[in-house]
Amino acid sequence: MGPYATAVLGDLGADVVKVEPLDGDMTRGIGARRHAGMTAMTLNLQRNKRSIALNLREPDGLAALRRLVEDADVIVTNLRPRSRERLGITYEALSECNPRLVMCTAQAYSSRTELADSPAYDDIVQAASGAALLTDRVYGQPSYAPYVIADKVVALHIAVAALAAVLRARTTGRGQSVDVPMVDAMIAFNLVEHLGGHTFDPPEGDFGWSRILVAERRPHRTADGWICIMPYSDQNWRDFFALAGQPELADDPRFREVNVRHRNMNELLATVGQMARHRTTDEWLELCAKHEIPASELLDLAAVGEDDYVRERNLLRSVEHPSEGRYFVTPTPMDFSETPVGLTRHAPRLGENSAEILAQAGYSPGEVADLFARNVVAGDHPAPVNEECA
């Protein structure tokens, strides 16, 4: 979540410095790669960033971080509170270097609770936030989403929180600490539609949105494949039933009005599934488009680059990395009329920018060379320094 949040900020124009341990971020060792430390995940999550590898357990490593913080707008970390305390990376300590600093922290549970230091990753958060058990209401057993939804949802919360806090700091001159607990964020995310009748005290209806929590809410088979057909308005349903050859269903008391349709959604969608089989996917897409009924074929993400819309929008961009060769990047999908989002810096090798960043923070060439020599910092080594000239 931290790398994704800061990738978004980098896409939007922030100068993002990634502070990594000497052996690198964990994602540098996960998945496909051409060279050590430069995995597929790294190429996308670390785009538009610079990398410095610091040993924060060394006093001089922590001192270097404090120097970087002096000129920073925001520091984002998903280290747990105990680790932050042990390393001296707290808002109280770092704000001494920079009163305008925003420190945005994120871990499974709130920093203000007894669970603050509990270890957790995406599956744990899906379980603890109620997401995993929602499928039990539909299919009779709990399950996890087939993607790291908690990490990515919380990452977007982090980006929004950081931008809001930085805007205030630039207005008032005062920074602040911002905590974005994963479980809190996902509970709020899950309850947007599912709190339902339990919004009221006492409840005025059932928990959960009945349109969503039904087993028949799934793509439908057609005569030659699959489709998502989703009539929504009253007119959509009248048109769809007419196209399916059963116009009388529009006046069926089970389906006539939106709130009643939602209560009978499982039966309604089962009926759609039976009707969908009588035409091909392309036939349905053409008919639905003509009558403005929401419908879509199913995108195969494994072949995403072949999709016409993806190509038109350039959502999967082929670029050339200086050391890793050709690869595809998926930038943040926002269109700005004046400040377009783009790839301005390829993902760096571990510590690729260490010397540059330290020099920018005011370290002399000799001091930089000394930090490298003592393994306080790692990465691309600076040129040898003549101490008499330094």
TrEMBL record:
Keywords: Transferase. InterPro entries: CoA-transferase_III_domain, CoA-Trfase_fam_III, CoA-Trfase_III_dom3_sf, CoA-Trfase_III_dom_1_sf. It comes from the Bacteria. This is CoA transferase. PANTHER family: BLL6097 PROTEIN, SUCCINATE--HYDROXYMETHYLGLUTARATE COA-TRANSFERASE. GO terms for molecular function: transferase activity.
